[in-house]
Amino acid sequence: MKVSQNNTFDVVIIGAGVVGASIALGLAKRGLKTLNVDTLPAAGYGSTSNSSAIIRPFYSAIESCALAHEARSRWLKWPEFLNADDESGHARYTECGMLILVAEEDKKLFQPSLEAMQSVGVAFEHLTVDEIGKQFRFFNTASFSPPRLTGDPGFGISNKTPLAGGYDIAAAGYVSDPQLATHNLQRAAEALGAVFIFNTRVTAIERSSGRVTAVTTHHGEKIEAPVIINAAGPHSSKINSLAGIADAMTISTHPLRHEAAHVPAPAGFGHGPDQINRVIGDSDTGVYMRPELGGNMLIGSLDPACDAKDFVNADHYNNTLTEQWTQQVWRAAQRIPSLCIPNIAQGVVGLYDATPDWIPIYDKSPLPGFYMAIGTSGNQFKNAPVIGDLMATLVTACEAGHDHDNDPVKFHLPALQRTIDLGFFSRNRELHAESSGTVLA
Predict the structure, then answer these.
(1) Strand stretches in 27-136, DSSP E
(2) pLDDT at 440
(3) How many of the other CB atoms lie within 10 Å of CB of 61?
């Protein structure tokens, strides 16, 4: 199988999820000849396809908040940003806003997020528990914190206090079809000369004179490139092992199994003219919820302490719904007593490529020419429109001789007219203390 007349590219990107496809577009805009190699049959076919695809600026660090708010400006003008047609149409971003419900004990935990949004210029409104009750009439505004498993004797019993209130953020929403959004990025990159191949696994990363030179695929094909980028999602740690750098980093990534439930939306929650349409982050019960087109809603876990972390082998894991589905749906039912719980579980099972502080790694590596955009699953889908430009800026600077480890590259966010330090996403950072330690990061 020949992917190029001489099998030589400027950059090989391992992975064609939403991050890998965005990187292809970012590099192609700079005139580089790129190749994405993916083991699956199509772009966005893996963990991206199972993403809840929530777009929100609620992050505990200024850098993360700024990156997400910059990306939102591109989601709002998605076809214009792509500047390319797609025979499948363009993905739709629905800006419905987001309500963060806060338990009394979590008020201090979320203070950094409020400060980050204020710094970036994200508007939000503080709602009292009475205001929440009036606007969201189907909510029970009692506090059940801390989140519990259904077998706990205290499950479903209020702790005798109301919620501490909430924060309503207008600049938030969700993308209806994350796989289509990835296909859009693929087509935009291809329009600029990028190449994508599928059903192909990288089996070796070759090097010469101390830097990468090529990848070898399971077809036995050698593809030469002076730059290789690991955007392999849940398989990123395996690719790092192929490159021989897995033990040369402070921060590592691990595939974390997650379930998302699909249930009928309660009366009053949805897309109708008199309905409430919000993404909900409920730290009090440990779940998030968002509307789904077609009268459904999606329920996921915010990774509270009661939910055991299920780290798995990315090639061998249980991809069927389990008791975790029940835990999430019943916790959501504490907040929404009218929630209809179906007898047959429906939803998706996917993998997060998670770091210990839930903040991604966008960095060079100890191996010259080898770069990483990893640890992104769970909360980085929203940043995809910007990640390509971010990685293009990083790669271009480092390949020109910039010492990123000692003088981190700065990345300009044009819509916000501000600059962030890419050292924040370093592979060798100390764990960020301001992180919430959950997917809300």
Answers:
(1) 34-37, 54-55, 93-94, 98-102, 124-127
(2) 65
(3) 22
- Output the pLDDT for position 437: 63
> ∠ CA 125-126-129 to the nearest 5 degrees?
135
Q: What is the pLDDT of residue 318?
A: 96
Rounded Cα distance between 225 and 358, Å, is 31
pLDDT tens per residue, range 315-359: 999 999 999 999 999 999 999 999 999 999 999 999 999 999 999
Rg (CA), the chain: 22
Q: What angle (nearest 5°) sits at the alpha carbon of residue 71, between those of residues 68 and 76? A: 125
What pTM was estimated for this model as a whole?
A: 0.95
pLDDT at 1: 42
The residues of the chain scoring below 50 in pLDDT are 1
Read off the tokens for 340. Answer: 């209809």
Show Cβ contacts of residue 117 under 8 Å, excluding neighbours closer than 6 positions: 57, 58, 65, 124, 169
What is the token pair recorded at 2? 């020949």
Express each pLDDT in 170-179 by its tens digit.
Answer: 999 999 899 9
The pLDDT assigned to 90 comes to 98
Between CA 416 and CA 421, with CA 417 as vertex, the angle to 5 degrees is 90
With tokens 């210029």, the residue in question is 121
Using CA atoms, how far apart are residues 363 and 284, in angstroms rounded to an integer? 35
Pairing of strands 347-354, 254-264: antiparallel
Residue with tokens 């997400």: 68
Show the tokens assigned to 20. 């890998």
Contact of 341 with 325, CB cutoff 8 Å: no
Token look-up 């691990």 returns 254
Closest among 38, 2, 9 to 213, alpha carbons compared: 9
382 in Cβ contact with 52 (< 8 Å): no
Residue 212, Cβ density class (10 Å: 0-12 exposed, 13-18 middle, ≥19 buried): buried
State residue 64's pLDDT score: 96
Asked if 237 and 415 count as a contact pair (C-beta separation under 8 A), the reply is: no
Token couple for 97:
């806003």
- Mention every residue, 6+ apart, whose C-beta is less than 8 A from residue 167: 58, 99, 100, 102, 110, 114, 124, 125, 126, 127
CA–CA dist 126, 100 (Å, integer): 10
